[in-house]
Specification:
With 275 residues, the chain is of the alpha/beta class. The chain has two domains: 162 residues, Rossmann fold, CATH 3.40.50.1000; 86 residues, Putative mannosyl-3-phosphoglycerate phosphatase, domain 2 (Threonyl-tRNA Synthetase, Chain A, domain 2). 35% of the residues lie in helices and 22% in strands. Strand 5 and strand 6 form a beta hairpin. It is globular. The mean pLDDT is 95.
Length: 275
């Protein structure tokens, strides 16, 4: 049986405080040696992930903006095994992608601003922030903050209002085929796609391409990872130093003893040891 790994980044593969991944390198080396695709699955943008992928020497497809977009190096995937109802588009010269969103981002932003006034809400989205403001609230460098602002499918909101108002806003967005997903730091406004749907698309792709049954592991630490974890065969909740573990409905769910990349490393090594 072939294996396929899907991993969240912030707080999982990357340390919550300093984004360091060195503790995960032994497991990454073993994934590469065993030729197991490890698919970065994140709320980050394509621009951010492309830079990190190069640093990690990861050559596999990747999932961005909480499952709204699936990217891969140009020509590396056989498109006959991808969903026929979704268009494959190019991203610069080096990447191709498909969107799992029905609502385009400009329309989302327009709706968000309209309801912000109508419901008298207090929040600020990435599209309204300067690079410096994004850097201040994420801890990213200015250069990385600029890449975090290059969004194609979703809008992170720094929520500054009550839970009741968030519910009101969520209900209003749902009428337009949009949802709000709580991440570690932000509330993400996006279409009805999620990380779990993206996992299913890629699992199906590999099953067709390999003509073999696929076993999936997923690792994550936040509420936005719940669909990903629940869609996988082996869900691993990475212990967080700041947030409670998400509630995952799955008979095989496992919570790591260690935080972040240390916990990630051990869970992956244990999974790879079982053939």
């Amino acid at each position: 049986m072939k294996k396929l790994l899907f991993t969240d980044l912030d707080g999982s593969l990357l340390d919550h405080h300093d984004y360091d991944y060195s503790a995960a390198l032994p497991a990454i080396e073993l994934l590469n040696n065993k030729q197991v695709p490890w698919i970065l699955t994140t709320s980050k943008t394509a621009a951010e992930v492309i830079e990190l992928k190069a640093e990690l020497q990861n050559t596999h497809p990747f999932i961005v903006e909480n499952g709204a977009g699936i990217f891969w190096p140009s020509g590396s995937m056989d498109t006959q095994f991808l969903p026929s109802n979704v268009a494959v588009q190019t991203w610069g010269e080096d990447f191709e992608f498909m969107s799992l969103n029905a609502v385009l981002l400009p329309e989302m932003l327009q709706l968000a601003q309209s309801y912000k006034k109508q419901l008298n809400l207090s929040f600020i989205g990435f599209s309204e922030m300067s690079n410096q403001q994004v850097a201040d609230c994420t801890g990213l460098t200015l250069e990385k903050a600029a890449k975090a602002k290059q969004r194609a499918f979703s809008e992170p909101l720094l929520w500054q209002d009550s839970e009741d108002k968030l519910m009101q806003f969520s209900n209003a967005m749902a009428q337009h085929g949009l949802q709000l997903i709580k991440g570690g730091r932000f509330v993400h406004l996006m279409g009805m796609s999620n990380k779990g749907q993206a996992l299913k698309v890629l699992s199906h792709y590999y099953q067709q391409a390999w003509q073999e049954t696929v076993e999936t592991m997923a690792l994550g630490d936040g509420n936005n990872d719940i669909p990903l974890l629940e869609a996988s065969d082996y869900p691993v909740i990475i212990r967080s130093p700041v947030n409670p573990a998400p509630v995952v409905k799955h008979s095989k769910v496992f919570i790591t003893k260690e935080n972040g990349p240390k916990g990630w490393n051990q869970a992956v090594l244990d999974w790879l040891a079982v053939d």
